[in-house]
Amino acid sequence: MPRNPRYDILFEPVRIGPVTAPNRFYQTPHATGMGLARPKAGAALRGLKAEGGWGVVCTEYCSIHPSSDDSPYAYLSLWDEEDVKALAPTVEAIQAHGALAGIELWHGGSHSPNRLTREPMLSPSEHSAVFWQPGQARAMDKADIAAFRDWHRAAALRARRAGFDIVYVYAGHDYLPFQFLSPLTNQRSDEYGGPLENRARLLRELLEDTKEAIGDRCAVALRLAVDELKGPKGITSEGEGREVVAMLAELPDLWDVNLAGGNGNDSRSARFSAEGYEEDSIAFVKSLTSKPVVSVGRFTSPDTMVGQIKRGIQDFIGAARPSIADPFLPRKIDEGREDEIRECIGCNICRSANNEGTPLRCTQNPTMGEEWRRGWHPERIQPARSEARVLVVGAGPAGLEATLALARRGYRVTLAEAGRALGGRLLRDSTLPGLGTWIRVRDYRAQRLEPMANVEVYRESALGAEDVRELGAEHVVIASGSRWRRDGVGGHVETPPGLNGAGRVLTPDDIFAGQAPEGPLVVYDDDHYYMAGALAERFLLEGREVTLVTPGTMLSTWTQMTDEQAFIQARLMELGLETVLTHRLSAVGGQSITVDCIYTGRQKTLACGTLLLVTGRLPERALYDALMAEPEALKEAGIASVTRIGDCLVPSSVADAVHAGHRYARELEEPDSVKMPRRERTTVLDPEGVRP
Ligand code: ADP
Ligand code: SF4
Question: What is the spatial order of strands in the sheet that 521-525 belongs to?
Answer without folding.
Answer: 504-506, 610-614, 521-525, 546-549, 578-580
